[in-house]
Structures are given as C-alpha cells and as structure tokens.
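Following up on my earlier thread - several people asked me to post the actual chain instead of describing it. Fair enough. Here it is, all 413 residues.
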Amino acid sequence: MKSIFRFYQFLGKYKLQMFVFLVVTCLTVVMETVRPYWLKGILDSAQINNFTAVFNFLILFGVSTVGANLISAFSYYLGDSIMIPVSREIRETIFQKVLELDFAYHVNKNTGSLISAFRRGDGAVYSIFLDIHQELFRVFIVLIVTLLFLFNASIPIALSLLFLFVVNIFLIWWLIKVNLKHRKNFNDSEDALSGIITDSLINYETVKFFAAEAKERRRLSHKFDDWSDKFWNFANSFRLMDISIGTTSGLGMLFILWLAIKKLNNGFTLGDLVMVSGFITGFYYQFFNLFFRIRDIAKSVTDLDKYFGILENETQVKDPLSPKVINNPTGSLSFSHLAFAYPKNRDKVLDDITLEIKSGEKVAFVGRSGAGKTTLLKLLLRFYDPTAGLIKFDGVDIRQLTKSYLRSLMAVV
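Reply from S.P.:
Thanks for posting it. Predicted structure:
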C-alpha cells in the first residue's frame, strides 16, 4: 500500500479537481442506474391509461439515457485533465531518479527489465486512477442505487442481491490471488524474454563479431518454452473466472427473478417485475466488472511497487553537503594508496595504487584485460568511490566536488 500512498501524494495537488470529477461521475452513474425505475413508471402508468404520466416517464428515461452519455464524456474529460499532468510529473520524477543513481545501479540492472518497469509503471498509473475513481467507484454507486430501489420494492429481493454480492466478493478475492500468482510468473518470464531481445539488439555488433546469431536464437527459443507454459497458466485463470463468477451470478440472478415472479399479483405489478429485472440484469455484468477492476488494481499495485521502487534506491556515491569549486583548474591528478573492489566482490581490482600526473603530462594506462585500466577511470569520474585511498584533482579530494562539476572538468575523446 506504500505505492498507493505515494500515488495519492502526487494526486494531492488536485483536490478540488478530484472532488468535481467524483461528483460528476456519481451523477452519471445515478442517471444510468435509475432507468429501470422509469420503465416501471411507463408500464404502471400505461396499465391505468395515464398517458400523461407515460409521457413524463418517457422524457425522464430519455434524459437519463442521453444526459448520462454526455455527462459521462465530461467525467472522462475531467479525469484526463487530472491524470495527464500527474502522469507526466511521476514519469519525470522517476526518470530524474534514474539519472541520479550510481553507475553501479545501471551495471546491475537488466536494460530490458528496466524498460519493462517504466512501461508497466506508466500504464499502472493510468489504470489505478481509472479503476478506482471511475470503475470501482461506479460499481459501488450502482450497488447503492440498486439496493435503495429494491429495498423499497421487496426486502427479501434486496437482501438476496446483497448476499450474492458478498459471496462474489469472497469468490473474486480468491480468483484474484490465483490470477495474480500466475501473472507474476508470466511477468518474470516476459521480462527475461524482453531482456534477451533488448540486450541482443543493443549489443548487435558483438553478436555479429562473434557470429553468435544462432546462439542468440537458441537462447530465445529456450526462454519461449517457459514463457508459453506461464502464458497458458495465466490465460486459464481467466477461464476459471468466467466459469465460477458466471455460474454463481447466473444462479443468483435466477433465484432473485423467481422471488420477483412469485410476488406478481401479490403486491407486485408488472412494472415492478420489469424494474427488478432491469436492475439485476444491469448488475449482473457489474460482478465481472468488479473482478476485472479489483484484479487490475492489484496487478497495477504490483507494477507500481516496482515502478516507485526505483525511487527507494539509495545513491551510494553522494555529493558533498558543502561542495568545493576549483578556481582556475590546471588538471593535475594524484592517486594515493588507491584500492578498490567491486560491490559484492571481495577480490580487489586495484590495490595500493599511488600515482602523480602533473598538468600537461600525457599518460597511457597499459595492461591486460581486467588489469583495472577502465576501473581507474571510473573511480576518477566517481562512478564508484574507492575502497581505500583517495584521488585528488589540483590538490582537492574529488569527493569534495559535486559529481556533475567533477565530470565537467574532464574530456573524453
């Protein structure tokens, strides 16, 4: 839930717009939901030949239908006017964090997986907003309006619908756990597949140099076997949902209709029967909508956790609180008893390196692969900080300079 809290922190700037948006959405749903009541009015009035009332109820039905459509479009417009700037701010915030993170973070991260985190995270931002504030909110407003009318018509019928709703909530909760378990497994397999494709495309020169096309195809094909199995499990979890929710809801709706038919000519009019039929038929599809909305929210929270989780990464190579600036830099360098081992590796790449490079001197680092030539440059640019020792630029410890300022003093050819 931490990611949801952070999401609402971004939405917090739009409190007034959110209030207006929810009020308009509520009005839309109420206008859509009450239409069976206007049909009841038309039928009951027609049975007693009160055609003035028939005409009035017909107008109300038309206003509900056309008006709800227009107001619904306005509701989505209001939602977009909130989500577009919020989505932009979230994306820029996380992108800025990625830029600030250390070289080590990017070395240890699979590029394809990071791209997937951004893609899914951006989608999750939109999905959570729409699912909570337009879809899930809509389901509960429909439930409240439907129960108000059904309690007025018949308490047993209203209680039956409420019981069916509670049963479906527990069923949906179980189905979502099954679905999300298979989705997580599928996502992991999809990320691995995406990582192979992305890394192969990024390093296409290396693939060509070593004639590794066949090897890359075999690597991808092997991952596709696992991907196919995970995809089938994920897809079948939806079939399980169709069968269980469809059967439970269908039987429940038939029972409610049977109760309504039993009450005909016993205080129940034909208009009442049509109204009850209209309400429960409309609500039948809300059970499926409820499943997909809660599932999408749970799925999106998982994606949002990974997306916002980027913000939780701590920058290891930090800028100093009181940075220094070198006046008239000359470019002299000194390495004093320098030692370094890469994170999670005990073996030192560099050990007790001491070197003076005067301004204007030309120095070449020569050695076998893995000797530490590139590592020395990474330490100089503060991609990492040394395990021991220090580096000075014009006599100033480079840890006393901001990383951006230090790197602005360097040139790469």
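The CA atoms of residues 183 and 234 lie 6 Å apart. That should answer part of your original question.
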